[in-house]
Specification:
Number of strands: 0
Shape: globular
Strand content: under 5%
Largest sheet: none
Number of helices: 10
């Protein structure tokens, strides 16, 4: 009997397997909840995948970009490239942590992350518009300082107002829900989108007026203004619908949010930075061609 009791006290080896299965089940549930909670799987995946791919692209081009920036010695391009990296990392964090928006106890962290991410992207928007209004590229430190100071003042005021709304008045600017409608919140977003739409509209009108020569003669800039004007018009319309309890507005607002966080940073890179890097490549190719021509490599072509 004692021998049987000792055998009964020995833990069965299946208990370890059961614990392992339980842990895997908990992990799968957490992973599933991370992707499906709040706005759903497709919303989260459509935010995460493009933002990660863009940062992977920047990483693959980082060595070449650093080399070209060091050779070009353009303060504006160096500053913008650094800001692009910073905001891209914030954007990945914002896209990947959507579950915080609907998690109790994470409201403060979500609001803080959303505030810094939105402010970083807004700073890039405003500073780029300032460069457009200056007419052409310039590498002067004075121009960079002047532009960044003006942009910093505007964005600083925007951060202060949003922080007061969110943390003092507890207006859920960054927490979106189809069931609850906050008229004050959507009214604030209407004003925000209306101001951006107006600025982009003014620049767009300048491209089609006698002041066109004051803007950079680059088609990429014109396409950038059209894209941002269209996106802000759609976001303004969506906020107006949400303020009036129209359910379609929530779907449209989510669509504009996905488009903004997925495509704005790549659009900025293609419009403002890619040309600089390509021009550097062309300058190097022309220099190599000139050296080879001087050395007589192409003399046989004239025979």
């Amino acid at each position: 009997m004692k021998a049987m009791e000792k055998v009964a006290e020995v833990p069965l080896p299946f208990s370890g397997i059961s614990d392992s299965v339980t842990e895997r089940g908990d992990y799968n549930r957490r992973l599933s909840g991370w992707l499906s909670d709040c706005h759903g799987v497709w919303y989260n995946v459509s935010l995460i995948v493009p933002s990660v791919l863009f940062v992977v692209y920047l990483s693959l081009q980082a060595k070449k970009s650093f080399t070209k920036l060091s050779r070009g010695r353009s303060y504006i391009m160096i500053a913008y490239y650094g800001l692009l990296w910073l905001v891209s990392v914030l954007n990945i964090a914002w896209c990947s942590l959507q579950t915080w928006e609907c998690t109790s106890g994470k409201e403060f962290s979500w609001n803080l992350l959303s505030l810094f991410t939105a402010s970083g992207m807004l700073f890039l928007e405003i500073s780029l518009m300032a460069f457009l209004l200056q007419g052409n590229y310039t590498s002067g430190l004075d121009a960079l300082t002047r532009t960044f100071v003006v942009s910093g003042i505007i964005v600083g005021a925007d951060i202060l107002l949003k922080a007061i709304y969110v943390f003092a008045f507890e207006i859920p600017l960054f927490i979106d829900s189809e069931e609850t409608t906050q008229r004050v919140k959507w009214g604030l977003w209407v004003v925000h989108k209306l101001l951006l739409t107006a600025v982009y509209g003014v620049i767009l009108c300048m491209y089609n007026s006698k002041w066109r020569e004051k803007l950079p003669a680059r088609p990429a800039f014109y396409n950038y203004i059209i894209a941002m004007f269209s996106l802000n018009v759609a976001a303004l319309f969506a906020c107006g619908l949400m303020g009036n309890d129209v359910g379609f507005g929530f779907w449209l607002y989510n669509l504009t949010t996905i488009c903004y966080h997925d495509f704005y940073l790549p659009l900025l890179y293609v419009t403002f930075l890619a040309d600089f890097f390509q021009e550097e490549d062309m300058r190097l190719e022309n220099a190599y061609y000139s050296e080879m021509k001087d050395a007589g490599f192409f003399d046989a072509d004239w025979d």
